[in-house]
Design goal:
210 residues, two-stranded antiparallel sheet, mainly alpha, 4 strands, Jann2411-like fold, 8 helices
């Protein structure tokens, strides 16, 4: 897991860009105490890694951020706030619970705001809501994440959403067999197996009086 300077394949295990966004916080346990969007630049690098932003758009936003650092910080704070609010709602969703009213209203408000700034454009096979830097400025990444979230909430993937048994990350389980327990075997799966081995080893020592 990275700290935001470089984004690698192991940071994108959510199966949907909205979930990969949620997974930019959190570490090796349930506490969301690791922040990967450490600055606005890290957020832009994440955006280009997920292809929510083009390299040209990221460069344009970087120039804007340099001329308005306070506005860039506000955009970053808004990104983080939406992420944690959405995480609360989707944790409730995957647990089969009602979304908390306050957090639901905040998510709904952000999606509505993004769609109000977006244009309905034709893609290869269907129409898509698109947001531009000209419309959104430094809030472009947040707008595109909100639009992606709206798409996830209407998709067949939503019932397949799972929470990793070891950490706070969410992911789409598209497997046909036994449900996935971890966000990735390489990360949490290996740590869980190591922890079980350690516990069994200690229990064996205790039984033998070691």
């Amino acid at each position: 897991m990275t700290t935001g300077s470089v984004w690698e394949e192991e940071d994108f295990v959510g199966g949907h860009v909205a979930l990969d966004f949620l997974n930019t916080a959190g570490g090796a346990n349930k506490a969301r105490d690791v922040e990967r969007l450490v600055d606005y630049g890290a957020a832009l690098r994440w955006g280009t890694a997920t292809k929510l932003l083009t390299e040209d758009e990221a460069s344009q936003l970087t120039r804007l951020a340099h001329t308005g650092p306070q506005t860039a910080q506000h955009a970053l704070d808004s990104l983080r706030a939406f992420r944690e609010t959405l995480h609360i709602c989707l944790m409730a969703e995957q647990a089969g619970s009602e979304w908390p009213w306050y957090e639901r209203s905040k998510v709904e408000k952000q999606i509505k705001a993004a769609l109000c700034e977006a244009s309905l454009d034709r893609g290869d096979e269907r129409f898509l809501w698109t947001a531009s830097a000209q419309q959104c400025g430094l809030a472009l990444l947040l707008a595109r994440i909100a639009i992606a979230t709206e798409s996830l909430l209407r998709s067949d993937d939503l019932p397949r959403m799972r929470n990793c048994e070891r950490c706070s990350w969410l992911f789409i389980d598209r497997g046909r067999g036994k449900p996935r327990r971890w966000c990735s075997m390489a990360a949490c799966g290996s740590r869980a197996k190591s922890a079980r081995y350690y516990r069994r080893h200690k229990e064996g020592q205790n039984r033998d009086g070691v």
